[in-house]
Amino acid sequence: MSSILNLTEDHRDCLQEITNVAMGQAGDRLARLLGTFVVLSIPHIEVMAPSDIAMALNSIDGNDSVSGVCQGFIGGGISGEAMIIFNDTSFSDLAKLMKYDDELDEHAERELLMDTTNVLFGACLKGIAEQIDLEFSYGPPMVLGQHMHLTEIIQQNNNRWDHALVTEINYQLEGYNVNCDLLIVLTDSSLDILLKKLDYLLY
Fold it and tell me: Which of 163, 168, 172, 186 has the smallest CB count inside 10 Å?
């Protein structure tokens, strides 16, 4: 955790602003795709262990049924993964917005999950990379689980890191019951380079 401990309030504020811009771009793309207004929370940035994440997602009750997707990224010495957690109550409204008329079975829900995830991950990670002058390569998105408790979804992913810098933002669609949390997890080994990038922007 040595690099993470060097994270100052200025670094946190700078990273929050970078993330805010990138998440805004992702929200704008989603809004144009779905034809509705996207409400974003302020990015929350914290050093976390995997077990902390479930508690940090205040918008999702730990007993709620959720579905999740993750995608790894790497570039310029920075690596991490993006995760998105959807409350399962989102699927029926997502299907309406995506004009999906077929039966909403598990396969259809998986398609909706992946389509929405691709828009958010693509725009958000691209936005962050551009602001810190990097290009990321992406792994294939993977479904962490469908219709599971939040703690079970997080446990699917908790063997990859001990502590990481986690940025979390909540997306909601105005007038619809669609609620998701997007997390960007940066590993401890990436922090030295990230801090240098932030220092360059700050000073």
Answer: 163
